[in-house]
């Protein structure tokens, strides 16, 4: 099955800052062992550059169901930090300055 790039736009609920702080160690540990492993991730910030509003991930997975399971197993989901998670497939433009390596497949014949 072909892998697809997926974006996860995870928005925190009201009053989630305390739960985020409490659950961050478990969330961070999971990011190091989760399958599929995220290709990139980071907090979404308010205009002040400090206040965290959520999280953004780029994940390579075969289908939406795999990504949904990934979200559901995260401590921020179970702990009520993320109020809304938007999942979208992403096709990188051929003109994108950043290239994501594709997984190794069977050898190609020239």
Quick description:
InterPro entries: Dimeric_a/b-barrel, Sec-metab_biosynth-assoc, YCII. The chain is α+β, with helices and mostly antiparallel strands and 110 residues long. It contains 3 helices and 4 strands; from the N terminus they run βαββααβ.
How far apart lie the N and C ends? Answer: 23 Å
The number of helices is 3
Radius of gyration: 16 Å
Strand ordering within the main sheet: 2-3-1-4
Task: Return the CATH topology.
Answer: Alpha-Beta Plaits
CATH superfamily: Dimeric alpha+beta barrel
InterPro entries: Dimeric_a/b-barrel, Sec-metab_biosynth-assoc, YCII
Family: Belongs to the YciI family.
Pfam families: YCII (PF03795)
Protein name: YciI family protein
Which descriptors would you attach to this protein?
globular; alpha+beta; 110 residues; 33% strand; 4 strands; YCII; Dimeric_a/b-barrel; 4-stranded antiparallel sheet; disordered C terminus; Alpha-Beta Plaits
Overall description:
With 110 residues, the chain is an alpha+beta fold. It has a single domain (4-90), classed as Dimeric alpha+beta barrel (Alpha-Beta Plaits, 2-Layer Sandwich). It is 27% helix and 33% strand. The protein is built from 3 helices and 4 strands. The protein has helices at 17-33, 64-72, 75-78; strands spanning 4-12, 38-45, 52-61, 82-90. The protein has a 4-stranded antiparallel β-sheet with strand order 2-3-1-4, covered by helices on one side.
